[in-house]
Design goal:
Elements lengths: L2 E6 L7 H9 L4 E6 L8 H17 L6
Parallel strand pairs: 1-2
Length: about 60
Amino acid sequence: MQLGYARVSTEDQHVDGQIATLKEAGAERIWSEKISGSKADRTELTKLIEQLRQMMWSSSPSTTD
C-alpha cells in the first residue's frame, strides 16, 4: 500500500494539488493538514508514522520460529 502526506503552511494555501499528485503516483491513503512548518505537533503526520509502524510490524517475520 502506498501512503501519502500533504501539508501547507498557511490557511490561504491549498493541498488539492499535492493530493492530486499523490493520487496520480498511486497513493491509496493520504493524510493532509494545514499547519506551519515550525509547529512541532503535526497530528496527521503522526498518524501516518503510526500507520507505517503498524505496517512494518505486521509484515515483519516472526522471531519466535
